[in-house]
């Protein structure tokens, strides 16, 4: 049985504790004539990766180093017994093609892959020992689906791509040295210490602007509710860019100040948010429309270049914060049935552009407010508390964008080669949306979304006239 270098247990940072315990299992697909030829490469690569970055083999457990504090977690070394039950690399053979695996009966339940394909099941995140990172190689008749399971309290999206890049390096060279990897145990320790120093160095602790607490997110459906599904769809990037330009013109011509410069990501989030709001109140008569109801969205802000000092892009731990934006919904619901077909000039109805611009400005202002002082305030509040269970209050929709992550640039060597497809496997958290990595490096790469909710509600979102106009009928592959 494999043995890995020992490492000293380390407490997860305050930023790690801003996320609830969940395992995610992104998948990397490779088309191979002889898929079994990849097994020796993966065995050597995973073994080498664990020797260079042994903390990835550890478990998330209750901390033994935090006397007087509740709900503090740490990464502890694993045991041989645990590794025997949950090996770092599992090989599983499936008597089907890749296409059948991602378009079979499971799709009726909204899942792109079944639980047989993932190395760590979702429910395990709440157990006393929960793996930080595991790999499962699914051997198909025409290729390989590589699932990387990771604990979200120990790694974020940037951490995942750094782990995947490190594994790809070891696939290309199973004798790789630490200098060829994105990070090292020492650099990880230094980054975690930097996060703690940000909090302990604060002169005073101001009230937090985000509502954090011991909130319980609904991670499962009640017996009478529909089973949650995940749905993948893509929208036309050229239309997003056109709408962004029109929204920016509305902002420049308005009397309000400041006048933010919108990003494509912000506009894409605003489009989904608007359709989400309308779907929730779909079919109501005018007299039933809410008068003072507000909609609340959580978006994930990446912090590595916002802290002082900045954290390295190669840091694997969590350097993200969920932040909230509110909006009144009544004006967004009025005249929602305008004709969304573009006219000869390629514009939407001006009233619709104004609504999208309104939401986009709100989102952009929220993101801009997350500066080094805000981050210092959040961290200092957490370290000053006796209970580190500081999960954000659930929102009706939460959006996490990993569009800028270069997943399709990863090269796993001469046997596996470059990644052909990337997926985020089903997770039963209602209202969560992922904006997936761009398939090629241009603004015109389709915007791919994965949303999790009840099937009836997802159908309403996709049937909103604005969304129907945006969606690419043939999917993301151009």
Number of strands: 18
Helix-and-strand structural type: alpha+beta
Low-confidence stretches: 104-109, 342-346
Q: Tally the helices: what do you get?
A: 13
The major β-sheet equals:
6 strands, mixed
Overall mean pLDDT stands at 87
The shape is: globular
Distance between the terminal alpha carbons, to the nearest Å?
Answer: 45 Å
User: What percentage of residues falls in helices of 4 or more residues?
Assistant: 25-40%
Name the CATH superfamily classification of the largest domain: Chloramphenicol acetyltransferase-like domain
In CATH's first tier, which class of the largest domain applies? Alpha Beta
How many individual domains?
A: 2
CATH topology descriptor of the largest domain: Chloramphenicol Acetyltransferase
What fraction strand? 15-25%
CATH architecture of the largest domain: 2-Layer Sandwich
Highlighted features:
478 residues, alpha+beta, Chloramphenicol Acetyltransferase, 2 domains, six-stranded mixed β-sheet, 13 helices, 31% helix
Q: Can you put this structure into words, describing what you see?
A:
The protein is α+β, with helices and mostly antiparallel strands and 478 residues long. The protein folds into 2 domains: 191 residues, Chloramphenicol acetyltransferase-like domain (Chloramphenicol Acetyltransferase, 2-Layer Sandwich); 257 residues, Chloramphenicol acetyltransferase-like domain (Chloramphenicol Acetyltransferase, 2-Layer Sandwich), CATH 3.30.559.10. The protein has 13 helices and 18 strands. β8 and β9 form a beta hairpin. α1 crosses α4 and α7 packs across α12. It is globular and about 65 Å long.
């Amino acid at each position: 049985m494999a043995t890995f270098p020992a490492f000293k247990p380390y407490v997860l940072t305050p930023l790690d504790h801003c996320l609830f315990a969940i395992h995610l299992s992104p998948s990397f697909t490779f088309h191979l004539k002889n898929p079994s030829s990849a097994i020796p490469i993966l065995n050597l690569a995973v073994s080498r990766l664990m020797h260079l970055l042994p903390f990835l083999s550890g478990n998330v457990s209750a901390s033994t180093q935090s006397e007087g504090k509740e709900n503090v977690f740490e990464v502890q070394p694993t045991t041989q017994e645990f590794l025997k039950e949950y090996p770092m690399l599992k090989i599983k053979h499936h008597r089907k093609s890749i296409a059948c695996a991602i378009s079979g009966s499971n799709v009726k339940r909204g899942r792109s892959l079944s639980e047989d394909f993932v190395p760590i099941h979702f429910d395990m995140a709440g157990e006393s020992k929960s793996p930080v990172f595991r790999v499962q190689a699914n051997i198909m008749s025409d290729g390989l689906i590589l699932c990387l399971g990771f604990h979200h309290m120990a790694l974020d999206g940037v951490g995942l791509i750094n782990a995947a890049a490190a594994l790809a390096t070891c696939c290309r060279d199973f004798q790789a040295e630490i200098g060829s990897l994105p990070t090292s145990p020492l650099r990880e320790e230094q980054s975690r210490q930097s996060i703690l120093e940000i909090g302990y160095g604060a002169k005073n602790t101001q009230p937090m602007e985000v509502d954090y607490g011991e909130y319980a997110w609904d991670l499962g459906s009640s017996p009478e509710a529909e089973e949650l599904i995940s749905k993948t769809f893509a929208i036309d990037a050229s239309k997003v860019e056109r709408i962004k330009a029109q929204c920016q013109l509305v902002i420049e011509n308005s009397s309000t100040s400041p006048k933010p410069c919108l990003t494509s990501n912000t506009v894409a989030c605003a489009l989904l948010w608007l359709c989400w709001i309308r779907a929730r109140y779909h079919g109501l008569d005018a007299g039933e429309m809410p008068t003072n109801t507000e909609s609340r969205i959580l978006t994930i802000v990446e912090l590595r270049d916002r802290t002082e000092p900045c954290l390295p892009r190669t840091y694997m731990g969590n350097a993200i914060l969920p932040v909230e934006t509110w909006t009144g919904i009544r004006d967004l619901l009025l005249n929602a049935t305008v004709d969304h077909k573009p006219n000869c000039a390629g514009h939407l109805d001006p009233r619709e552009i104004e609504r999208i611009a309104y939401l986009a400005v709100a989102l952009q202002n929220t993101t801009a407010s997350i500066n080094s002082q805000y981050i210092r305030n959040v961290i200092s509040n957490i370290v000053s508390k006796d209970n580190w269970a500081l999960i954000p209050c659930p929102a009706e929709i939460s959006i996490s964008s990993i569009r800028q992550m270069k997943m399709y640039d990863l090269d796993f060597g001469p046997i596996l080669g470059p990644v052909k497809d990337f997926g985020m496997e089903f997770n039963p958290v209602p209202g969560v949306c992922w904006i997936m990595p761009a398939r090629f490096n241009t603004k015109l790469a389709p915007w791919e979304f994965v949303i999790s909710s009840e099937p009836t509600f997802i159908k309403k979102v996709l049937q909103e006239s604005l969304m129907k106009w945006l969606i690419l009928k043939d999917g993301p592959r151009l």
